[in-house]
Amino acid sequence: MSKRCYYEVLEVERTVDDGVLKSAFRKKAMEHHPDRNQGDPHAEARFKEVNEAYSVLSDPQKRAAYDRYGHAGMNGQSAGPGGFGGFSGGAQGFSNVEDIFSEMFGDIFGQQRRPNGPQRGADVRFDYEISLEQAYKGADIEINVPTTMTCEVCNGSGAKPGTRPQTCQTCGGAGRVRASNGFFAVERTCPSCNGQGQTIKDACSACHGHGQVRQNKTLNVHIPAGVDDGARILLKGEGQAGAKGGPKGDLYIFLAVAEHDIFERDGLDLHCTIPVPMETAVLGGTMEVPCLMGGENCDGQCKLEVNIPDGGQTGHEVKLKGRGMPGLNSRQKGDLPNLVKADAVIDFSTPEASLALLEACANEGLSRPRPLVHVIGSTGFSDEQVARIPHYAERVVIIRSGNYSLGINLLAGLLKQVTARLAAEDWDVEITEGHHRRKVDAPSGTALLLGEAAAFGRGVRLNDVKVTARDGITGPRGVGDIGFSVIRAGGIVGEHSAIVASEDEIITLSHSARDRTLFARGAIEAALWGRKQKAGLYDMQDVLGF
Predict the structure, then answer these.
(1) Which residues have CB under 8 Å from 487's CB, separation 6+?
(2) What is the pLDDT of residues 99-150, one digit of tens each?
(3) pLDDT tens figures, 223-263
(4) Strand ranges (DSSP E) for 494-540?
């Protein structure tokens, strides 16, 4: 929330003099005092706001900076507790409710609240932004800090050279005056010297009687390797000058680490998202990835080799141990996880997982100039799940097939043409398949792909004519049925045949797979084809142009 104008807070004009300013402050302080506004949760905040406004406007230097630069002119100055980069110790600020009433009404029973001896200078906050490379390696920087310094002309006395402050005649140098009224004795700040115990007849022309001047101080600062966003560096005695010979305050440098174009930091780990070619994502391989700082003389342009496992999908993480950020003041190092990001997803897991990935691709596609490509299988999907797929096809290029082998899809295309030309009442169709003993689905997605091709050629739905559980191979069957037979044995990669038989002749279309990567290579071919398409639902027949 932006701060309100200090003049608006106290309801005074910008030309207000000290007397009217003080009167307005007292009025507002009484109006917003928490004890007079019990039950109002915002009273304390308004009370502090009034105190902060007066602490700035009652100080000539701060008021001049505020009039010129507004709230930005307060950076590095103390504007009361928690204000404008300063910590405790502002000369005009009030630290609590008692200070307010001490200023307005004096201290009861003669308690002395404001010492007139040396006073410590205010602490200063300085914000500085560094790069991720500087945070990784450490750096030596030079900063210019606006702060107050003891006036060299008057040596901090505030008096014109050749003169010196005089003891206040009103309070005798105590800075306080006491008034008795019967049983009570009330002590308050001396109105003649404002509690300083001294008065200055001829003020120093350089500091105008304050004893301090505002200057920029140049400092050399070492940033250790491994610092994180929000880290704080303390420089003792580099804050604002103390009053009356008091010690200087401290300087707190708060570091902010700038966002990096490539890396994102998480504790000691560095995360990097890399685009991976389709072939590498599916078949695996090695890639070079950027490295923040590879060694002692690294300029940040070096590369690291990463092994991408086969089947890597978008979101897969590959971790490089010990290549992350160094620990602050320790030998510990984080890791460098690389997030694989491809423009296509090939997924043959479960229908549930495929649909979840489809939804993620559809959502990511909203922020991409071109839609993502999603290649999936067709086995195991329920009717309800199949009905959901077209919805995602509005934002994703979806290619769905039971088999991505070029040979199988050519066989399916031929089977469509054969069954389209032969009468169902005269010709029976049997799909046979052989697989290794570990395969569990029957019929497989490939067998169903061939069955759908045969049904398509006949102009019917496969579910209406599919027969998968007959009594024996030569058992009874209906006219126009499409039967499925399965063999599970040994280490057969995949053998499929479509048998079309009449009373007089048999047509056999067969395919044997000898290499398990046929399927993956076909899926890659489909994904590469999909990169050139608009969002929609396709199959391998579209890819091959059938």
Answers:
(1) 432, 433, 434, 435
(2) 455 444 444 444 444 445 677 888 888 888 988 888 888 889 999 888 888 8
(3) 888 888 888 888 888 888 887 778 888 888 888 888 887 77
(4) 494-501, 506-513, 536-538
Query: Across 14-116, where does the E strand assignment appear?
Result: 107-108
| Number of other residues whose CB lies within 10 A of the CB of residue 295 | 7
Residue type, 114: R
- Residues 510-525 have a mean pLDDT of 79
Per-residue pLDDT band at 270 (split at 50, 70, 90):
confident
Q: Is the pLDDT at 78 greater than 70, yes or no? A: no
Tokens (6 digits) for 489 = 């044995």
Alpha helices (runs of H) in 96-216, residue ranges in sequence order: 97-105, 132-137
- Report the distance separating Cα 493 and Cα 435, nearest Å: 6
d(CA 521, CA 346): 11
pLDDT at 479 over 70: yes
What distance in Å separates the CA atoms of residue 301 and residue 323, rounded to the nearest whole number?
Answer: 15
Show Cβ contacts of residue 45 under 8 Å, excluding neighbours closer than 6 positions: none
CATH 2.60.260.20 location in the chain: 124-165+200-257, 263-341
Residues 486, 439: contact at Cβ < 8 Å?
no
pLDDT of residue 165: 87
Per the prediction, the chain carries an average pLDDT of: 77
In CATH, what number does 345-400+532-544 get? Answer: 3.40.50.720
Distance between CA atoms of residues 427 and 384, nearest Å: 33
CA dihedral for 396, 401, 403, 405, sign (positive or negative): negative
The rounded distance, in Å, linking the Cα atoms of 157 and 244 is: 7
Lowest pLDDT segment from 18-27, 47-56, 513-522: 513-522
Q: What CATH code would you report for 406-514?
A: 3.30.360.10
Q: Which residue has the tokens 């022309």?
A: 205
For 354, phi then psi, to 5°, come to: -65, -40
Which residues are tagged catalytic?
435, 439
Place of tokens 């469509």: 416
Helix (H) or strand (E) holding 519: helix 517-530
* Mean pLDDT value of segment 358-374: 71
CATH 1.10.287.110 fits 6-108, yes or no: yes
What is the C-alpha to C-alpha distance for residues 56 and 47, in angstroms, rounded to an integer? 15
**Which residues, in sequence order, are bridge partners of residue 124?**
86, 251
Reported pTM: 0.44
DSSP-based three-state secondary structure for 483: strand
Superfamily of domain 124-165+200-257: Urease metallochaperone UreE, N-terminal domain (2.60.260.20)
Most confident of 83-87, 89-93, 402-406: 402-406
